[in-house]
Amino acid sequence: MTTTETAQVVSSGSRDEAAGEALLRLGLALRDSGYHFTTGTPATHQRVNRRPTNGVARDLRDVFGWSRPFSADVLPAGFLELLMAAGAVEPCGDLWRSRVRYSSYDGEIFVHSAFPTDAPDSVFFGPDTYRMADAAAAHVSSRAEPVTRAVDIGCGTGAGAIAVAKRATSAEVFAADINDQALRYTRVNAALAGVRRVHPVHSDLLSGIDGEFDLIISNPPFMIDPAGRAYRDGGGADGNDLSLRIIDTAAERLAPGGSLVLFSGTGITGGQDPLREAAERRLAGTGLAWSYREVDPDVYGEELDGPAYAWAERIAVVLLTAQRPR
Description:
Blueprint: H1 3-11, H2 17-32, H3 42-50, H4 60-64, H5 79-85, E1 89-92, E2 95-98, E3 100-105, E4 108-113, H6 127-142, E5 149-153, H7 159-167, E6 172-177, H8 180-193, E7 198-202, E8 213-218, H9 241-253, E9 254-268, H10 274-283, E10 289-296, E11 314-323
Parallel strand pairs: 5-6, 5-8, 6-7, 8-9
Antiparallel strand pairs: 1-2, 3-4, 9-11, 10-11
Protein name: SAM-dependent methyltransferase
Domain Methyltransferase small: 148-262
Organism: Actinoplanes siamensis
């Protein structure tokens, strides 16, 4: 796919046509430059950026990975103009700061929100994105029958949907989100990956999409977030409400032989996992065969210092898979 063709993919149906094309061209230029950046947790990002030598950007990774302020002469010719065309740069004293980041995964490059992700419509990309997309890709590769219709609920950057579309090469893949910014970035990221079969749709769970699915994947917000940020707050006393709603939706919309791959998180105390216990109750009587495991038993430890998790002894990220028999 040529640069012109990919730009047309982004532009089609987008209300921010010029901005999307600029972000696409910036991503292509970064990829051509050999750019690569693996995104860590917000806590890691903050710690690294606090080091005395990391106050100002010195190269492209500092600008578009670490979200450090930069002078115009750090960027190659044309880069600042693309950022301006995308509305993705802001003054920072005598310097500039990019409002977007570009992260690497699965041989592709993904645009998402700059650090810190404080805005209500922030689009997050981090370690959980890598884990969820890996789990979705592995599930597609292990299936006995091909995926023909899939959806990524709460798609964010579209990384999961794109990973599925690259492996299920004949599948129709939907990327659903309530955040219009996420859908804009998904369009750009699908174009950067050269994947035409990813369809971004504004949808609360599957309310905006009809029919059944061979595969439903999701990495929903699962934290207890006092600020109530949409990309982070999972809802309810344990942060698990959205994950449980996705389980309910999958029980209604999975086709025979269809699967749910849900990557989520939960606070643990006294050996009790409230998400697993609630999921077991929700799945009882659905006829779905399911499994549940901790992918990482101890993440986001800094959250234990705050009142929201004063009751928890650790936070785990988990993977729930469920399948409807044929």
